[in-house]
């Protein structure tokens, strides 16, 4: 699933994987700290200590526990990431946000591989929670009450996190496990459709329980499960639609190019004549060296258009695909970079160009094919 977290900042890097905080994390953290602080007496009783034994104020302790809870979520996501990496899947980053975390992967996981990646997080949380509750907690019996409370709470919440994540509420870990098992007996898209339907049932159930009990967190969880399930299904519909196409099937082979020594004034005139907003830049040997757009021209003062050359304003790092790449790869790159076109390059030579419109043409063609199949001859 393509997820863009632009409003986030990197706070650490673990084994080459950036850990990022989304802006929504800053909104939910004080809320969690307040809720935990308000319930510190109940938590203390469960941990076997009294509030009189605590040396830290309830709300400071609530903030500490909230932070450590999100550390646990980060470790949970790292477990997913390490297992995915062992299967050759690159990890872009891990982002902590409103109600948990997301490990963003560079490639899609194969159907069978998804089972182990999905199980990795809950298994880690279960083992980690068990170690805290049944190994470390007895050893910490002589330590300060605050420490004993922290150990108990973290252990309990990690065990809870493991079981809660295993609910088949797609796109949670349990939902992905369900999809992986279903995909062994049907198509991946059909498995996604079933898992998505189950996830939406859970979302409605959480929303009703949250409304009746007044628990805002359950309502938020219901909202994110429903939205996440819908987006995941749509994403897989698009992937399925593109599965039969290569970039070479839809790219434009005849492409207008410009030379890096062309004056900016002549480039602007060419853009007005041909009504293009961007051009590939090729050298004397017809090799791609960059790309120039209308936005690049805007960085040049008007009185310098005659004297400035394209090689002074062009973008040298061009996002590109190869003719033999599958169309879905092109779709992901164009979506992640939020651009309108991709250069098609092979061995450094420009072979063509593919645009958003070209890619969506494939989607419309596949949709028409499916409609014709349903209608029949």
Number of strands: 9
What's the order of the H and E elements?
EEHHHEEHHHHHHHEEHHEHEEH
Structural class: alpha/beta
In percent, how helical is the residue content? 55-70%
List unreliable stretches of 5+ residues: 1-5
* Main sheet properties: 4 strands, mixed
The rough form would be described as: elongated
* Rounded radius of gyration (Å): 26 Å
Instruction: Give the mean pLDDT.
Output: 87
Given the structure, what is the number of helices?
A: 14
Give me the oligomer status. single chain
Q: What is the CA–CA distance across the termini?
A: 36 Å
Keywords:
377 residues; alpha/beta; CBS-domain; 3-stranded mixed sheet; 14 helices; 58% helix; 14% strand; elongated; disordered N terminus
Task: Explain how this protein is built.
This protein has three domains: 1-166, no CATH class; 174-242; 247-364, CBS-domain, CATH 3.10.580.10. It has 14 helices and nine strands. The chain has helices at 23-38, 40-47, 58-86, 111-139, 145-165, 173-182, 188-213, 216-242, 247-250, 264-274, 294-297, 310-313, 327-336, 356-375; strands at 8-14, 17-22, 91-97, 100-105, 278-282, 288-293, 320-321, 341-346, 349-355. The protein is elongated.
């Amino acid at each position: 699933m393509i997820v863009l977290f632009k409003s986030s900042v990197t706070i650490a890097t673990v084994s080459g994987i950036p850990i990022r905080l989304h802006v929504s994390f800053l909104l939910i953290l004080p809320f969690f700290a307040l809720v935990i602080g308000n319930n510190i007496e109940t938590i203390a009783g469960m941990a076997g200590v009294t509030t009189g034994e605590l040396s830290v104020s309830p709300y400071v302790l609530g903030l500490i526990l909230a932070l450590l809870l999100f550390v646990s979520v980060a470790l949970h996501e790292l477990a997913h990431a390490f297992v995915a990496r062992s299967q050759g899947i690159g990890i872009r980053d891990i982002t902590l946000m409103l109600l948990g975390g997301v490990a963003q992967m560079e490639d899609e996981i194969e159907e069978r591989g998804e089972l182990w990646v999905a199980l990795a997080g809950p298994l880690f949380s279960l083992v980690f929670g068990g170690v805290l509750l049944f190994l470390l907690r007895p050893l910490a019996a002589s330590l300060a009450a605050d420490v004993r409370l922290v150990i108990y709470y973290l252990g309990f919440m990690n065990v809870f996190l493991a079981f809660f994540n295993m609910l088949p509420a797609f796109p949670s870990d349990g939902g992905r496990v369900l999809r992986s098992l279903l995909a062994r007996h049907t198509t991946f898209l059909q498995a996604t459709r079933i898992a998505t339907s189950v996830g939406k049932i859970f979302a409605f159930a959480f929303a009703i329980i949250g409304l009746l009990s007044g628990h805002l967190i359950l309502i938020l969880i219901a909202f994110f499960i429903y939205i996440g399930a819908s987006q995941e299904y749509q994403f897989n519909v698009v992937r399925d639609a593109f599965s039969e196409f290569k970039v070479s099937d839809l790219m434009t082979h005849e492409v207008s190019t410009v030379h890096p020594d062309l004056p900016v004034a002549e480039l602007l005139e060419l853009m007005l004549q041909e009504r293009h907003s961007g051009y590939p830049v090729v050298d004397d040997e017809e090799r791609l060296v960059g790309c120039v757009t209308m936005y690049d021209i805007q960085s040049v003062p008007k009185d310098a258009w005659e004297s400035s050359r394209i090689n002074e304003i062009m973008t040298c790092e061009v996002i590109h695909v190869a003719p033999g790449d599958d169309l879905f790869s092109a779709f992901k790159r164009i979506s992640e970079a939020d651009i309108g076109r991709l250069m098609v390059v092979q061995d450094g030579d420009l072979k063509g160009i593919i645009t958003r419109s070209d890619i969506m043409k494939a989607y419309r063609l596949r949709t028409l094919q499916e409609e014709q199949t349903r209608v029949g001859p």
